[in-house]
Amino acid sequence: MTNHLAGPVLVLLDHAPDGTLRAPVLELLTLGRRLGSVHGVWLGAEGPGGDVLAALGAYGVDVVDVLDLGGADARLTPVVADALADLSAALGAAALLLTSSFDNKEVAGRLGVRSGAGVVVDASDARVVDGRVVADKTVLAGTWTTSCAVRTPFAVVALKANSAQPEPVASPTQPAVVAHPVTLADDARQAVVVERQERTRSDRPALGEAQVVVVGGRGTDGDFSAVEELADVLGGAVGATRVATDEGWIGHDAQIGQTGVTIAPRLYIGAGVSGAVHHRGGMQASGVIVAVNSDPESPIFEIADLGIVGDLFTVLPQATQELRRIKAAQG
């Protein structure tokens, strides 16, 4: 019986255009160390900067594999899947961990077809049991928690943000940097990006990565001001139900649910949210669920850790005011 994999554990190092690591990567590195020897995978011939290498060493990365895509666009999922398939085969990798974003889930699926790997997406944990990767995930709109054992030699697991508490190692490593030229298949080059438009930046954290999410539903009647003020004082993101986005009260990129963003924050606050099955499927893995609704029969109270029956426009401003008072007192 062993609780570590024999082959390397690859972790896809998602990073911003300026080269900084995205926050969930540190969670993946923490989980990856529990599985075996961690290799960070960096897409782009330029490689990570010195600060990033130091951060990777602080989280116990042994090797950073830099993939030179030969000018191909790393935003295209066929390109990424092709490159990861080649690298995993060359290294004899036992597992690949990546953040469970929309793009990465498509990469995981393509990689599974290409390499014959067992694939688990939207996982909340990963560990080794009897030499196999076992990943936990909720299914059926969050009503069941399952443990999925990957039976193939190579496992691909896409983990939700906030699946683990980032933990640096006691003795940092000095990762070796190894360059890998990648030869892409012709079909990976069939699509090209001809134009792109950056979204308007927000000071709030990304919805899928935030540790605190405040969500507005039908009960807001289109007024998200109280929701946004509470989110800002908590340093959280703002989400919405499908009804709110369909009504045009907020952008569709804020929609949480089975056809929207799946979240797993440490704290979820639902204001005027009924708790329909569609919405619950996207948030039920949250650590602590707080519900504010004037209807005591709302289904969300069935899964809430704390339920407040009241008007959100009365409850939320009081909570915001008290939080501001506490923060001011703390200096």
TrEMBL record:
Pfam families to which the protein is assigned, alphabetical: ETF (PF01012), ETF_alpha (PF00766)
InterPro entries membership: DHS-like_NAD/FAD-binding_dom, ETF_a/b_N, ETF_a/FixB, ETF_asu_C, Rossmann-like_a/b/a_fold
Alphabetized Gene3D superfamilies for the sequence: HUPs, TPP-binding domain
Residues covered by the Electron transfer flavoprotein alpha/beta-subunit N-terminal domain: 9-192
Cofactor(s) listed in the protein's UniProt record: FAD
PANTHER family, alphabetized: ELECTRON TRANSFER FLAVOPROTEIN ALPHA (PTHR43153), ELECTRON TRANSFER FLAVOPROTEIN SUBUNIT ALPHA, MITOCHONDRIAL (PTHR43153:SF1)
Family (UniProt): Belongs to the ETF alpha-subunit/FixB family.
Subunit structure as annotated in this protein's UniProt entry: Heterodimer of an alpha and a beta subunit.
Function: The electron transfer flavoprotein serves as a specific electron acceptor for other dehydrogenases. It transfers the electrons to the main respiratory chain via ETF-ubiquinone oxidoreductase (ETF dehydrogenase).
Name this protein carries in UniProt: Electron transfer flavoprotein subunit alpha/FixB family protein
